[in-house]
C-alpha cells in the first residue's frame, strides 16, 4: 500500500534520509523506530507530503506521488489521518468542534460520523468539554477521534504516547489496536520507545543516521544485553 524507493531528504547540506526503500502492507501496524534525530518524523511526514523528498519514489495504493497534480494530491491526503504527540487540539474549541474541524477542512458535514467516533473512543460525555479540562489520555483520544472521523485508509502517529504515563500509554495503544481492527486502517507509528513498538506493531523499520538498518518482525521476546541500536531492537522485538 505504501512503497518507498530510494527516498532521500536533505535540509540545506545535511542529508537526513538516505536511500530509504521498504513497503508497508495494507492494514499493517508498521513502526519506525530510532533515536532522536534519526529522521523518523521526516520520513513520516513525507507520506502525506507535509515534507517533500528530494529524490526517489513514493507510492500510495499504486499512485506515484511525484506524478500527481496538486488537486489529486489534495484528494489523496483525505485518506490520511495524523495523530501528534502534543495532541494539537484548539483550546477555544470544544471536543465536538475539534473533531468536526477535520470534516470542515474537507467541506463535509457529518454529525453521525462524529457521534460514532465519540462512542468508539468512549468520550461521548466529553463532547462539550474544552481541551484544558481533559487529562492527557482524553486529549489523545480526542486527537485520534479527529483523525478517524473522515475514515482515512492510513493513520500516521508521531510519538503518540511520548507525553503519557505508562498506564495511559497502554490504554492509547489498545485504542490504536482497536482502530486497526475495527476500521481496517493502516497505521504507521513513529516512536523511540521499543516497548511501544513491541506492544502494537507487526513489523518495525530501524532508522539510524538517516538509513534503514533493518526491518524486524515483532514477536514475543526477552530483552538481552545490547550493542548498537539495531541490535537492541532485535533483542527486544524478535525471537
Q: Helical amount among residues, as a percent range?
A: 25-40%
Taking the sheet with the most strands, its summary is: 6 strands, mixed
Q: Give the integer mean of the pLDDT values.
A: 91
- From the N-terminal CA to the C-terminal CA, the straight-line distance is 27 Å
User: How many alpha or pi helices?
Assistant: 8
Helix and strand run: EEEHEEHEHHHEHEHEEH
* Contiguous uncertain segments of 5+ residues: 221-227
How does this structure look, described?
- The longest helix has 17 residues, at 166-182.
- The two termini are 27 Å apart.
- A hairpin with a 2-residue loop joins strand 1 and strand 2.
- 34% of the residues lie in helices and 26% in strands.
- It is of the alpha/beta class.
- The relative contact order is 0.18.
- The strands form two sheets. Strands 6-7-8-3-9-10 form a six-stranded mixed beta sheet, with helices on both faces. It has a four-stranded antiparallel beta sheet with strand order 2-1-4-5, covered by helices on one side.
